[in-house]
Amino acid sequence: MEEGKSNVRAVERALDILLCFTEGSNLAMSEIAEKVGLHKSTVHRMLATLEDRGFVERDPSSERYHLGMRMWELSAHLSRSDDQSVIWQPEMERLRDRLGETVSIYVRDGSERVRIQAVQSNQPVRRVAPVGARLPLYAGASSKVLIAYSDRFVQEQIFGDPAWLLAIDLDQYKQQLEEIAQQGYATSFEEREPGVAALAAPIFRHGQVSAALSVSGPSSRLTMETMREYSSVLIESAKRMGTMIK
């Protein structure tokens, strides 16, 4: 009986820790300990477990925590008015209607990117983008945006990951990232899939890249010239979406 109560109490403490992130998106362990009224050693152990399961993520450079990708995966099965992927959907639909192509939102999870929202093109030949799909970071316009606007520490972590393709010329890739950071968007032309092209722009939150807004479709329609023409419209949509989240 006592063991059962102890297990329930551990669950309650874990939930209390997760609820701290309703008051802030980027918290130090000491801040969390103060909010939940627990010793730092207890909070440290529970955060380690939550991090191992993907519910929180720790920034090694600052030792601060934020919600992890497991929360996105759970929220994908809900329809909530405060879910930013839901908040962004009307703007995504407007962008889809204006450009005629599939619109997606990606966030980074380690050495992968995850599609958390998508609005499919209405055209007969179109790019189908399933929500929840995980894709590698080493190819694609959204991947380049998520890396280009990350800080140097995060970039070096990504480049040092064993999943990174050795065939990529890293010096040339870094130069490309600098150009992307200057122009405000990235393009890809049949990099990951034959016949598919995409362009992407960053969505910022508190001055940091939060997600990548992407437009993708057949390379026969999304030529490099067409993508350059679409870039200003995409960037403006990404800026508006950045103002929609707290």
From TrEMBL:
<keyword id="KW-0804">Transcription</keyword>
<feature type="domain" description="IclR-ED">
    <location>
        <begin position="70"/>
        <end position="246"/>
    </location>
</feature>
<dbReference type="InterPro" id="IPR005471">
    <property type="entry name" value="Tscrpt_reg_IclR_N"/>
</dbReference>
<dbReference type="InterPro" id="IPR050707">
    <property type="entry name" value="HTH_MetabolicPath_Reg"/>
</dbReference>
<keyword id="KW-0805">Transcription regulation</keyword>
<dbReference type="InterPro" id="IPR036388">
    <property type="entry name" value="WH-like_DNA-bd_sf"/>
</dbReference>
<dbReference type="Pfam" id="PF09339">
    <property type="entry name" value="HTH_IclR"/>
</dbReference>
<keyword id="KW-0238">DNA-binding</keyword>
<protein>
    <submittedName>
        <fullName>IclR family transcriptional regulator</fullName>
    </submittedName>
</protein>
<dbReference type="InterPro" id="IPR014757">
    <property type="entry name" value="Tscrpt_reg_IclR_C"/>
</dbReference>
<dbReference type="Pfam" id="PF01614">
    <property type="entry name" value="IclR_C"/>
</dbReference>
<dbReference type="InterPro" id="IPR029016">
    <property type="entry name" value="GAF-like_dom_sf"/>
</dbReference>
<dbReference type="InterPro" id="IPR036390">
    <property type="entry name" value="WH_DNA-bd_sf"/>
</dbReference>
<feature type="domain" description="HTH iclR-type">
    <location>
        <begin position="8"/>
        <end position="69"/>
    </location>
</feature>
